[in-house]
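Objective 1.3, modelling of assemblies. Example input:
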Amino acid sequence: MANLDDLYREIILDHYRTPRNRGELTSPSAIRTEGFNPLCGDELVVYLDVQDGVIVDIKLTGHGCSISQASSSMMSAAVKGKTVAEARATIDRFKQLMTVHESSLDGQGEAPVADIRTMGELAALQGVVKFPVRIKCATLAWNTLSQGLDEA
Amino acid sequence: MANLDDLYREIILDHYRTPRNRGELTSPSAIRTEGFNPLCGDELVVYLDVQDGVIVDIKLTGHGCSISQASSSMMSAAVKGKTVAEARATIDRFKQLMTVHESSLDGQGEAPVADIRTMGELAALQGVVKFPVRIKCATLAWNTLSQGLDEA
Amino acid sequence: MSSYSARRVRGDTPLLGRVINGRPITYLDSASSTLPPRPVIEAMTRYYELRHANVHRGVYQTAVEATDVYEGARAATARFINAPQGLDEIVFTKNTTESFNLLAKSWGAANLTAGDVVLVTEMEHHANIVPWFQLREQTGIEVRFVPVTDDFRLDLSDLDRLLDGVKLFSFTAASNVLGTRNPVKELTRIAHDHGALVAVDAAQSVGHQPTDVVDLDVDFFCFSAHKMLGPTGLGVLWTRAAILESMPPFLGGGGMIADVRVDGYVPASGPTRFEAGTPPIAETAGLSAAIVYLEGLGLANVARHEDELTSDALKRLANEFDGRVRVIGPAENVDRGGVLSLDVDGVHPHDVAQVLDQFGVCVRPGHHCAKPLMRRFKLAATARASFGPYSLTTDTDVLLEALGSAVTMFG
Amino acid sequence: MSSYSARRVRGDTPLLGRVINGRPITYLDSASSTLPPRPVIEAMTRYYELRHANVHRGVYQTAVEATDVYEGARAATARFINAPQGLDEIVFTKNTTESFNLLAKSWGAANLTAGDVVLVTEMEHHANIVPWFQLREQTGIEVRFVPVTDDFRLDLSDLDRLLDGVKLFSFTAASNVLGTRNPVKELTRIAHDHGALVAVDAAQSVGHQPTDVVDLDVDFFCFSAHKMLGPTGLGVLWTRAAILESMPPFLGGGGMIADVRVDGYVPASGPTRFEAGTPPIAETAGLSAAIVYLEGLGLANVARHEDELTSDALKRLANEFDGRVRVIGPAENVDRGGVLSLDVDGVHPHDVAQVLDQFGVCVRPGHHCAKPLMRRFKLAATARASFGPYSLTTDTDVLLEALGSAVTMFG
Ligand SMILES: Cc1ncc(COP(=O)(O)O)c(C=O)c1O
Ligand SMILES: Cc1ncc(COP(=O)(O)O)c(C=O)c1O
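Predicted structure (tokens):
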């Protein structure tokens, strides 16, 4: 049985209550990307300031559930100051984390651990895969970031 | 259980095999009325020659199942030479005969017999009520006649 | 009937025997879909085991029986809502949504032209909005909205002006978000006085209170079997026989025609004109059983029972949680049904529903297909609890316990 | 699989245990609707007893399960017909007829204008004719017919000319009247060479032979669950994901939108754009079970079995009755399915069916929703016998016995 504590880890609730990097970037060079989850009504705007291949600043506005809010907050903390290439690698690793492994869903095994060790705080979102309907809440921020980087 | 012999009485098969009053009336005063049963594809044309309130001639063309063919043949024989009022009374009695009586369907009773005694050959169609899907086959001719008389 | 017992209904409903996360299920999502009792499920099973055949045109025994099942359901439905001309007025559709599309795309397209107004309300379900928007794109009609007041009622202060130029006033009998019940009979009288026809979205009313379309004097009536203890896949459009006969066909195909030639087709008359293709047949067996079951309970009894549950729940929600749980809908239990949309301070509805699931409590988070209404109240979503004929105050107990946990968790 | 046994399928099919007029039922009306086996009926019962909830948006356990049932059926259907992009290409409708209406009213209305040609055939079911006539009324397209030869095949002698200016060639994989199977792959290749897209009416094929839309290379594919051992109330439209994404909405309402404001709406993407309102959910549980059941039998085995029955029946019908019983359809068992439309000299199809009913034999009299074809052969109706996976040669025995009685009776 999926346990609620797996989903709502303390660090997730912390990011939800005290989101990082809230706000807008108004500089003309900033990229603004909208993300939208029609099923639950979550909305997210990601502002990126990319200079010489480095994400020098990132800000977020929008609203959503704790998972989508925490995931976007953690995402912003994870990629701020990183190169675009590093950010893309993180997106890929995160997406892999969110992939439902039949075996782990059955409780027959766990998602691959190798990646998790390198992911810091983000690993706390691992519990989401046990609640498949919430995966799209967690991935909204990352898909929106990915889109934004495409425009950078 | 409804028995097939109740439906296909010998007199019905006789009218089906040797339909009375087949043909058309071409005189300008003749009334031509089309009947149509979309569910089974039956088609019927009734030609009426009504003079001074008397049906002096009636002819039929079209195609359909044995019940609809026999019913129209018997109808033509029953009303030919009769006054319009008499024909209407026969239509009414026939329609009553075709009314499904819940009790008779259950085998708990029979349709009212009073009428039947006065109906001659037509009484042979009484068995149709035990096969409710066929009632519309039997009534097509009569509905078409009724329409034709309305125009007379 | 005084013999109504919600506890017995519960016993009749197999799904309520389920255990979720170690707790007996607390089903509070009847506004989304109701749970069918055993007689409804069995009617469909029996249909497939004994009678299934395609309807109409069949001469053999099971085809006759299947047709009787289908036409019998039409007759039962007509009786259920008191359709004046009986089964000739009942069109079977897929759901309420298809009923409204049929209304808009057949009656609407034939009777409305650029500048004509369809009046709806700000509390409508998308099913009674989007078809009119689609018709607007096509024909240039105007779609006008009756606003909703801050206390969650239709704002009727300006109704006379709003009804100006209106050909159809289409509104919900009961809001699936607010619980608000609208005064159908009164609104219909006023609309008729302005020369408008009236369509009613009865999705949230038919399974919860008695219905009499003659008394209400409405012109169109749309609802779904799955919201009245019946099966999925079946809806109803009722309209007066005279209107129905005047409506052009909707979808084309088998069953809805009188004749087809290579150069054209002639539509059939009666309800079948709108029922193209093999209809949901087993589903009508389920609907008939649901109607018989509801009639056995007595809709007035169901209404009274759900009313008591609603009064109790409103009171307890107001008294607990120090105001952190707000009901989006009338706070007083007057002219409202058993739908409780909750806004929990600091906890997103999605998270509310997730925590409640841990207690086996089924509530629905989201916009409930009523986005204009959500915008009106500046909400993205609510967590909605709703009652059915099988609901008990113990359901409210568990709801409150679980809500308490959610509030604490997100403290 | 070599383990296929029609006798076992019969044992799995509760309705075949019925006794009609004192005789065991002889069901020969599978072209109208097939009889569901026990696992299909039970899947729906179980769904209602354990999992029923409205789909999408739900967070609680049974809502998640119901959504899994629904989306799982999409995946099963995609696998069943080998849809290249899987479940993103499967739209659930009410029946084949709604699938064609969706095709005509969404894709057709968006892509066809006055003068464009839709090519159909003279052997089409009304489901693949009337929607195009309706579009013709609206837009002025031309609807052209491929004629049928005297030996009940498509007359392809002039196909190149007929395909001139054609945007869509929409034809049936197998005729529900003649039994004729059309060369779908070859016709598709030719149509594509002429720049036309191809839609296939697979209502009579999916339950009787293997399907692979990639191999066939078609563009649209329509069928009904109730003709492949599944329930009523559910149909399928398959099309390539790229085409599907380009198609405008059809019916409007909940579920098919991304956003609704008082001034307009934004449609959702993917198959749900075409699934307005609460869909037939239990029905998808039935369809999944039907697919698993058919896959267990092996469609190739079913095809071979029905082929043997057809060969045998054609031979016996030709040899008995001194030519008084004529088969309206290919006399040789080549490229034909198990559909036998009978014309009995001197006995109206209605009477044939009535007499056969007395023997418990279920055949369907009528025009079978193919009036242009009936006109082509100057028939008002036929009495149609058709096989399913549960049919046996003993069914043919009883059919012949009963036909003999009909012939004698009307001597
Ligand atoms: C060839 C063919 N096409 C279409 C249909 C229509 O299917 P439905 O009635 O399920 O919409 C049928 C069945 O009647 C058929 O046989
Ligand atoms: C008020 C109202 N109208 C319409 C609908 C649509 O019903 P369905 O989804 O059965 O078409 C619903 C249910 O979701 C509803 O609550």
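Chain C is about 40% helix and 15% strand.
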